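Worked Example 4.2. Consider the chain below.
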Amino acid sequence: MAFPTSLLLFLLCLFLSTSSSLAKSKTKPKQIVLPIYKDASTLQYLTQIKQRTPLVPVHLTVDLGGRSLWTDCEHGYVSTSIRPGGCGTIQCRLAQASKSCEPCNPEFPVGPGCTNAPTCWRFPENTVTHYASGGELASDIITINSTDGKSQGNVVALPQFLFFCALSTITDGLAKGVTGMAGLGRTKISFPVQLATALKLKRKFGLCLSSSTTSNGVVIFGNGPYNFPTTWNNSSFLTYTSLIINKVNTELRVLKGEASAEYFIGVKSIKIRNRTVKLNTTLLQINKIGFGGTKISTVNPYTVLETSIYNAVIKAFVNELKNVTRVPSVAPFGACFSSKNIRNTRVGPAVPNIDLVMEENGVVWRMYGANTMVRVNKDVLCLGFVDGGEPTYINSIVIGGHQIEDNLLTFDIDKSRLGFSSSLLFRQTTCSNYRLTSNA
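Applying the procedure from the previous section yields the following C-alpha coordinates:
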Protein backbone atom coordinates (compact mmCIF):
# COMPACT_ATOMS: atom_id res chain seq x y z
CA MET A 1 0.00 0.00 0.00
CA ALA A 2 1.42 3.40 -0.98
CA PHE A 3 1.21 6.17 1.60
CA PRO A 4 0.79 9.81 0.43
CA THR A 5 3.66 12.13 1.29
CA SER A 6 1.37 14.37 3.34
CA LEU A 7 0.29 11.42 5.49
CA LEU A 8 3.86 10.28 6.04
CA LEU A 9 4.92 13.76 7.09
CA PHE A 10 1.97 13.93 9.50
CA LEU A 11 2.95 10.58 10.97
CA LEU A 12 6.57 11.68 11.32
CA CYS A 13 5.43 14.85 13.07
CA LEU A 14 3.25 12.79 15.41
CA PHE A 15 6.03 10.26 16.04
CA LEU A 16 8.73 12.83 16.77
CA SER A 17 6.69 15.47 18.54
CA THR A 18 5.18 13.00 20.98
CA SER A 19 8.59 11.57 21.78
CA SER A 20 10.74 14.69 21.74
CA SER A 21 9.99 16.42 25.01
CA LEU A 22 12.53 19.17 25.34
CA ALA A 23 14.19 17.63 28.33
CA LYS A 24 16.52 20.51 29.07
CA SER A 25 14.70 23.35 27.39
CA LYS A 26 11.96 25.44 28.98
CA THR A 27 10.92 27.29 25.84
CA LYS A 28 10.45 26.37 22.23
CA PRO A 29 13.71 26.98 20.33
CA LYS A 30 13.70 29.23 17.27
CA GLN A 31 16.83 27.71 15.81
CA ILE A 32 19.12 24.73 16.31
CA VAL A 33 22.86 25.31 15.92
CA LEU A 34 25.73 22.98 15.12
CA PRO A 35 29.37 24.09 14.87
CA ILE A 36 31.25 22.86 11.81
CA TYR A 37 35.01 22.60 11.84
CA LYS A 38 37.38 21.83 8.98
CA ASP A 39 39.75 18.89 9.36
CA ALA A 40 43.22 19.90 8.18
CA SER A 41 44.30 16.48 6.94
CA THR A 42 41.19 15.39 5.00
CA LEU A 43 39.57 18.79 4.33
CA GLN A 44 36.29 17.29 5.51
CA TYR A 45 33.78 19.43 7.39
CA LEU A 46 32.99 17.88 10.74
CA THR A 47 30.48 18.37 13.51
CA GLN A 48 29.61 16.77 16.83
CA ILE A 49 26.39 15.77 18.52
CA LYS A 50 25.71 13.77 21.65
CA GLN A 51 23.81 10.52 21.27
CA ARG A 52 22.79 7.40 23.28
CA THR A 53 22.10 6.64 26.94
CA PRO A 54 24.38 7.46 28.64
CA LEU A 55 25.21 10.32 26.28
CA VAL A 56 28.53 10.22 24.42
CA PRO A 57 30.04 12.64 21.86
CA VAL A 58 29.66 11.43 18.26
CA HIS A 59 31.87 13.00 15.59
CA LEU A 60 30.36 13.19 12.11
CA THR A 61 31.34 14.31 8.62
CA VAL A 62 28.79 16.79 7.27
CA ASP A 63 27.23 15.63 3.99
CA LEU A 64 25.05 18.34 2.46
CA GLY A 65 23.33 15.88 0.11
CA GLY A 66 23.28 12.94 2.54
CA ARG A 67 20.02 11.08 3.04
CA SER A 68 20.18 10.65 6.83
CA LEU A 69 22.30 10.36 9.93
CA TRP A 70 24.30 7.14 10.01
CA THR A 71 26.90 5.95 12.46
CA ASP A 72 29.04 2.92 13.19
CA CYS A 73 27.14 0.54 15.46
CA GLU A 74 29.35 -2.50 14.98
CA HIS A 75 31.95 -1.58 17.57
CA GLY A 76 31.40 0.37 20.75
CA TYR A 77 27.76 1.37 20.35
CA VAL A 78 26.27 0.98 23.82
CA SER A 79 22.92 2.53 24.65
CA THR A 80 19.91 1.59 26.75
CA SER A 81 17.63 3.84 24.67
CA ILE A 82 18.26 2.56 21.14
CA ARG A 83 15.16 1.13 19.45
CA PRO A 84 14.71 -0.79 16.17
CA GLY A 85 12.77 0.75 13.31
CA GLY A 86 11.08 -2.51 12.39
CA CYS A 87 9.38 -3.42 9.15
CA GLY A 88 5.86 -2.10 8.71
CA THR A 89 6.48 0.83 11.05
CA ILE A 90 6.03 4.52 10.37
CA GLN A 91 9.78 4.94 10.72
CA CYS A 92 10.57 2.31 8.10
CA ARG A 93 8.21 3.88 5.57
CA LEU A 94 9.59 7.35 6.21
CA ALA A 95 13.08 6.02 5.56
CA GLN A 96 11.83 4.57 2.25
CA ALA A 97 13.16 1.24 3.45
CA SER A 98 9.92 -0.77 3.53
CA LYS A 99 11.08 -2.71 0.46
CA SER A 100 14.31 -3.68 2.24
CA CYS A 101 12.96 -5.85 5.04
CA GLU A 102 15.08 -8.87 5.80
CA PRO A 103 15.29 -11.41 8.63
CA CYS A 104 17.82 -10.43 11.28
CA ASN A 105 21.02 -12.47 11.38
CA PRO A 106 22.07 -13.03 15.03
CA GLU A 107 25.67 -13.51 13.91
CA PHE A 108 25.72 -10.17 12.16
CA PRO A 109 24.36 -7.64 14.67
CA VAL A 110 24.93 -4.01 13.67
CA GLY A 111 21.98 -2.34 15.36
CA PRO A 112 19.56 -2.75 18.23
CA GLY A 113 19.77 -6.50 17.85
CA CYS A 114 17.47 -9.21 16.53
CA THR A 115 13.77 -9.00 17.25
CA ASN A 116 10.89 -11.27 16.35
CA ALA A 117 9.98 -9.00 13.44
CA PRO A 118 11.99 -8.62 10.22
CA THR A 119 14.60 -5.89 10.24
CA CYS A 120 14.20 -2.60 8.33
CA TRP A 121 17.35 -2.24 6.23
CA ARG A 122 18.82 0.47 4.06
CA PHE A 123 22.16 1.24 2.44
CA PRO A 124 23.92 4.13 4.21
CA GLU A 125 26.72 5.48 2.02
CA ASN A 126 30.10 6.97 2.78
CA THR A 127 29.95 9.62 0.07
CA VAL A 128 33.64 10.43 0.49
CA THR A 129 34.69 6.95 -0.65
CA HIS A 130 31.41 6.05 -2.42
CA TYR A 131 31.22 2.86 -0.38
CA ALA A 132 27.89 1.62 0.93
CA SER A 133 26.80 -1.27 3.08
CA GLY A 134 23.61 -2.58 4.59
CA GLY A 135 22.52 -0.84 7.76
CA GLU A 136 19.64 -1.26 10.18
CA LEU A 137 17.19 1.56 10.81
CA ALA A 138 17.08 2.56 14.47
CA SER A 139 16.24 5.47 16.74
CA ASP A 140 18.02 6.85 19.77
CA ILE A 141 18.29 10.02 21.79
CA ILE A 142 20.41 12.91 20.53
CA THR A 143 21.08 16.28 22.15
CA ILE A 144 21.92 19.49 20.35
CA ASN A 145 22.12 23.21 21.19
CA SER A 146 19.35 25.69 20.49
CA THR A 147 19.21 29.47 20.14
CA ASP A 148 16.54 32.14 20.14
CA GLY A 149 18.38 33.82 17.28
CA LYS A 150 20.19 36.29 19.56
CA SER A 151 21.86 34.23 22.26
CA GLN A 152 22.78 30.64 22.91
CA GLY A 153 19.86 28.63 24.22
CA ASN A 154 19.37 25.40 26.10
CA VAL A 155 20.28 21.89 25.11
CA VAL A 156 17.41 20.17 23.31
CA ALA A 157 16.91 16.42 23.63
CA LEU A 158 15.19 14.39 20.91
CA PRO A 159 14.66 10.90 22.35
CA GLN A 160 13.81 9.04 19.11
CA PHE A 161 15.94 10.50 16.35
CA LEU A 162 16.06 8.16 13.34
CA PHE A 163 19.41 7.01 11.96
CA PHE A 164 21.06 4.00 10.35
CA CYS A 165 23.44 1.64 12.09
CA ALA A 166 26.38 0.88 9.80
CA LEU A 167 29.33 -1.47 9.73
CA SER A 168 32.72 -0.19 10.89
CA THR A 169 34.24 -0.70 7.42
CA ILE A 170 32.03 2.03 5.97
CA THR A 171 33.87 4.67 8.03
CA ASP A 172 37.15 4.09 6.15
CA GLY A 173 38.25 7.35 4.53
CA LEU A 174 36.56 9.59 7.07
CA ALA A 175 38.60 11.91 9.29
CA LYS A 176 40.25 10.52 12.39
CA GLY A 177 37.76 9.94 15.20
CA VAL A 178 34.72 10.27 12.91
CA THR A 179 32.21 7.43 13.17
CA GLY A 180 29.48 8.50 10.77
CA MET A 181 27.93 11.18 8.59
CA ALA A 182 25.26 13.83 9.16
CA GLY A 183 23.05 13.98 6.09
CA LEU A 184 21.34 17.32 5.34
CA GLY A 185 19.69 16.21 2.10
CA ARG A 186 16.15 16.24 0.75
CA THR A 187 14.58 13.24 2.48
CA LYS A 188 12.00 12.73 5.19
CA ILE A 189 14.61 11.63 7.76
CA SER A 190 17.49 14.01 7.03
CA PHE A 191 18.80 16.23 9.83
CA PRO A 192 16.93 19.42 8.84
CA VAL A 193 13.62 17.64 8.22
CA GLN A 194 13.63 15.63 11.45
CA LEU A 195 14.56 18.70 13.50
CA ALA A 196 11.94 20.84 11.78
CA THR A 197 9.23 18.24 12.32
CA ALA A 198 10.06 17.55 15.94
CA LEU A 199 10.54 21.16 17.01
CA LYS A 200 8.09 22.86 14.61
CA LEU A 201 10.84 24.81 12.87
CA LYS A 202 10.89 25.96 9.27
CA ARG A 203 12.27 23.30 6.92
CA LYS A 204 15.17 25.59 6.19
CA PHE A 205 18.81 25.83 7.21
CA GLY A 206 21.74 28.18 6.82
CA LEU A 207 25.20 26.80 6.06
CA CYS A 208 28.39 28.80 6.57
CA LEU A 209 31.70 26.93 6.23
CA SER A 210 34.84 28.44 7.69
CA SER A 211 38.00 28.50 5.58
CA SER A 212 40.04 28.13 8.77
CA THR A 213 41.03 24.82 10.36
CA THR A 214 41.17 26.51 13.77
CA SER A 215 37.85 28.42 13.81
CA ASN A 216 34.36 26.97 13.48
CA GLY A 217 31.77 27.56 10.84
CA VAL A 218 28.13 26.78 11.54
CA VAL A 219 24.90 25.24 10.30
CA ILE A 220 21.71 26.82 11.66
CA PHE A 221 18.45 24.86 11.39
CA GLY A 222 15.28 26.92 11.23
CA ASN A 223 14.45 30.33 9.85
CA GLY A 224 16.76 33.35 9.97
CA PRO A 225 17.96 35.89 10.86
CA TYR A 226 21.51 34.64 11.28
CA ASN A 227 23.55 36.40 13.90
CA PHE A 228 26.70 37.78 12.27
CA PRO A 229 28.41 40.77 13.97
CA THR A 230 27.68 43.32 11.26
CA THR A 231 25.27 46.16 10.69
CA TRP A 232 23.66 44.65 7.58
CA ASN A 233 20.56 42.48 7.52
CA ASN A 234 21.63 39.06 6.27
CA SER A 235 18.33 38.39 4.53
CA SER A 236 18.54 41.54 2.40
CA PHE A 237 21.90 40.84 0.75
CA LEU A 238 21.21 37.24 -0.27
CA THR A 239 20.57 36.42 -3.91
CA TYR A 240 18.12 33.63 -4.65
CA THR A 241 17.90 30.87 -7.21
CA SER A 242 15.75 27.78 -7.54
CA LEU A 243 16.79 24.42 -6.17
CA ILE A 244 16.22 21.72 -8.76
CA ILE A 245 15.09 18.21 -7.89
CA ASN A 246 16.99 15.54 -9.76
CA LYS A 247 14.34 12.88 -10.19
CA VAL A 248 16.92 10.15 -10.67
CA ASN A 249 19.23 9.03 -7.88
CA THR A 250 22.75 8.60 -9.26
CA GLU A 251 24.56 7.96 -5.98
CA LEU A 252 23.75 4.28 -5.42
CA ARG A 253 22.47 1.65 -7.84
CA VAL A 254 20.56 -0.03 -5.01
CA LEU A 255 18.48 3.15 -4.69
CA LYS A 256 17.55 3.17 -8.37
CA GLY A 257 14.11 4.60 -8.96
CA GLU A 258 14.29 7.17 -6.16
CA ALA A 259 14.89 10.88 -6.50
CA SER A 260 18.28 12.25 -5.55
CA ALA A 261 18.58 13.76 -2.07
CA GLU A 262 21.20 16.28 -3.25
CA TYR A 263 20.81 20.00 -3.96
CA PHE A 264 21.03 21.04 -7.63
CA ILE A 265 20.92 24.53 -9.12
CA GLY A 266 20.35 25.72 -12.68
CA VAL A 267 23.63 27.08 -14.08
CA LYS A 268 23.29 28.10 -17.74
CA SER A 269 26.79 29.49 -18.39
CA ILE A 270 30.14 30.38 -16.83
CA LYS A 271 31.85 33.75 -17.19
CA ILE A 272 35.43 34.70 -16.40
CA ARG A 273 36.07 38.43 -16.14
CA ASN A 274 32.61 38.92 -17.65
CA ARG A 275 33.47 36.88 -20.76
CA THR A 276 31.37 33.79 -21.42
CA VAL A 277 33.36 30.57 -21.50
CA LYS A 278 32.73 28.53 -24.64
CA LEU A 279 31.45 25.13 -23.61
CA ASN A 280 28.80 22.51 -24.42
CA THR A 281 25.83 23.97 -22.55
CA THR A 282 23.77 20.78 -22.93
CA LEU A 283 26.03 19.32 -20.22
CA LEU A 284 24.64 21.91 -17.80
CA GLN A 285 21.22 20.27 -17.96
CA ILE A 286 20.27 17.14 -16.02
CA ASN A 287 19.60 14.43 -18.59
CA LYS A 288 16.91 11.76 -18.46
CA ILE A 289 19.11 9.31 -16.53
CA GLY A 290 20.05 11.88 -13.88
CA PHE A 291 23.52 12.92 -15.02
CA GLY A 292 24.79 16.37 -15.93
CA GLY A 293 23.68 19.52 -14.14
CA THR A 294 25.21 21.38 -11.19
CA LYS A 295 25.06 20.31 -7.55
CA ILE A 296 26.57 21.64 -4.32
CA SER A 297 28.67 19.34 -2.14
CA THR A 298 30.43 19.45 1.21
CA VAL A 299 32.26 16.15 0.67
CA ASN A 300 34.20 17.36 -2.38
CA PRO A 301 36.95 19.69 -1.12
CA TYR A 302 37.16 21.49 -4.50
CA THR A 303 34.82 22.09 -7.41
CA VAL A 304 34.81 19.20 -9.88
CA LEU A 305 34.16 19.89 -13.57
CA GLU A 306 33.42 17.49 -16.41
CA THR A 307 36.54 17.25 -18.59
CA SER A 308 35.44 19.43 -21.52
CA ILE A 309 34.09 22.11 -19.15
CA TYR A 310 37.28 21.88 -17.07
CA ASN A 311 39.49 22.36 -20.14
CA ALA A 312 37.42 25.32 -21.33
CA VAL A 313 37.55 27.01 -17.91
CA ILE A 314 41.30 26.42 -17.56
CA LYS A 315 41.95 27.83 -21.03
CA ALA A 316 39.82 30.93 -20.44
CA PHE A 317 41.25 31.58 -16.97
CA VAL A 318 44.87 31.21 -18.11
CA ASN A 319 44.18 33.57 -21.02
CA GLU A 320 42.79 36.21 -18.63
CA LEU A 321 45.85 35.79 -16.38
CA LYS A 322 48.41 35.68 -19.18
CA ASN A 323 50.55 38.42 -17.62
CA VAL A 324 51.22 36.22 -14.60
CA THR A 325 53.89 33.51 -14.77
CA ARG A 326 52.44 30.02 -15.03
CA VAL A 327 54.33 27.33 -13.10
CA PRO A 328 54.19 23.49 -13.12
CA SER A 329 50.90 22.02 -11.98
CA VAL A 330 50.48 20.74 -8.44
CA ALA A 331 48.06 17.81 -8.13
CA PRO A 332 45.10 17.76 -8.13
CA PHE A 333 45.11 21.17 -9.85
CA GLY A 334 45.84 21.79 -13.51
CA ALA A 335 46.58 25.52 -13.60
CA CYS A 336 49.12 27.00 -11.17
CA PHE A 337 50.79 30.40 -11.08
CA SER A 338 53.61 32.25 -9.41
CA SER A 339 52.14 34.29 -6.59
CA LYS A 340 54.84 36.97 -6.81
CA ASN A 341 52.86 39.18 -9.18
CA ILE A 342 49.42 38.52 -7.70
CA ARG A 343 48.48 41.05 -5.08
CA ASN A 344 46.13 40.27 -2.24
CA THR A 345 42.79 41.99 -1.71
CA ARG A 346 40.00 41.91 0.84
CA VAL A 347 38.41 39.03 -1.10
CA GLY A 348 41.62 37.09 -1.70
CA PRO A 349 44.14 37.00 -4.56
CA ALA A 350 43.53 39.60 -7.27
CA VAL A 351 42.56 37.25 -10.10
CA PRO A 352 39.66 37.32 -12.58
CA ASN A 353 36.27 36.68 -11.01
CA ILE A 354 34.45 33.50 -12.00
CA ASP A 355 30.68 33.84 -12.37
CA LEU A 356 28.10 31.08 -12.41
CA VAL A 357 25.22 32.52 -14.40
CA MET A 358 21.88 31.11 -13.29
CA GLU A 359 18.82 30.35 -15.37
CA GLU A 360 16.92 33.20 -13.70
CA ASN A 361 17.49 36.47 -15.50
CA GLY A 362 20.23 38.57 -13.86
CA VAL A 363 21.11 36.05 -11.14
CA VAL A 364 24.87 35.47 -10.86
CA TRP A 365 26.96 33.67 -8.22
CA ARG A 366 30.29 35.49 -8.25
CA MET A 367 33.41 33.76 -6.95
CA TYR A 368 36.38 35.90 -5.93
CA GLY A 369 40.01 34.87 -5.52
CA ALA A 370 39.53 33.60 -1.95
CA ASN A 371 37.19 30.94 -3.32
CA THR A 372 38.81 30.23 -6.67
CA MET A 373 42.51 30.07 -5.75
CA VAL A 374 44.36 27.66 -3.46
CA ARG A 375 47.75 28.53 -2.01
CA VAL A 376 49.81 25.32 -2.21
CA ASN A 377 52.97 27.00 -0.90
CA LYS A 378 54.28 30.52 -0.31
CA ASP A 379 55.18 31.01 -3.98
CA VAL A 380 52.42 29.13 -5.83
CA LEU A 381 48.69 29.69 -6.24
CA CYS A 382 46.53 27.20 -8.14
CA LEU A 383 43.06 27.48 -9.61
CA GLY A 384 41.02 25.34 -7.21
CA PHE A 385 39.04 23.34 -9.77
CA VAL A 386 39.69 19.70 -10.64
CA ASP A 387 39.03 17.45 -13.64
CA GLY A 388 36.08 15.13 -12.99
CA GLY A 389 36.33 12.97 -16.10
CA GLU A 390 34.12 12.30 -19.09
CA PRO A 391 30.41 13.18 -19.04
CA THR A 392 28.75 9.76 -19.21
CA TYR A 393 28.19 8.99 -15.54
CA ILE A 394 28.82 12.18 -13.60
CA ASN A 395 27.35 15.52 -12.73
CA SER A 396 28.90 18.19 -14.93
CA ILE A 397 29.62 20.65 -12.11
CA VAL A 398 29.99 19.77 -8.44
CA ILE A 399 30.56 22.95 -6.44
CA GLY A 400 32.97 21.90 -3.68
CA GLY A 401 33.74 23.06 -0.17
CA HIS A 402 36.52 25.53 -0.99
CA GLN A 403 34.21 27.44 -3.32
CA ILE A 404 31.50 27.90 -0.67
CA GLU A 405 33.71 28.72 2.33
CA ASP A 406 32.90 32.06 3.94
CA ASN A 407 29.72 32.21 1.88
CA LEU A 408 26.35 32.13 3.64
CA LEU A 409 24.03 29.66 1.92
CA THR A 410 20.40 29.14 2.91
CA PHE A 411 18.49 26.04 1.79
CA ASP A 412 14.71 26.45 1.90
CA ILE A 413 13.36 22.94 1.38
CA ASP A 414 9.68 23.92 1.29
CA LYS A 415 10.18 26.71 -1.25
CA SER A 416 12.92 24.78 -3.08
CA ARG A 417 15.09 27.88 -3.06
CA LEU A 418 18.77 28.60 -2.42
CA GLY A 419 19.95 31.91 -1.01
CA PHE A 420 23.63 32.78 -1.43
CA SER A 421 25.74 35.69 -0.30
CA SER A 422 28.92 35.39 -2.37
CA SER A 423 32.02 35.99 -0.25
CA LEU A 424 31.40 37.41 3.23
CA LEU A 425 34.95 38.78 3.07
CA PHE A 426 33.48 41.49 0.86
CA ARG A 427 31.45 42.53 3.92
CA GLN A 428 34.44 42.30 6.23
CA THR A 429 33.32 39.22 8.09
CA THR A 430 33.70 35.43 7.86
CA CYS A 431 31.73 32.34 8.78
CA SER A 432 33.90 31.93 11.89
CA ASN A 433 32.52 35.24 13.17
CA TYR A 434 29.08 33.75 13.73
CA ARG A 435 28.38 34.53 17.38
CA LEU A 436 26.66 31.35 18.46
CA THR A 437 28.78 28.20 18.47
CA SER A 438 27.64 25.12 20.30
CA ASN A 439 29.39 23.57 23.26
CA ALA A 440 26.76 20.85 23.67
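The CA atoms of residues 171 and 200 lie 32 Å apart. The chain has six helices and 32 strands. Compare this with Example 4.1 before moving on.
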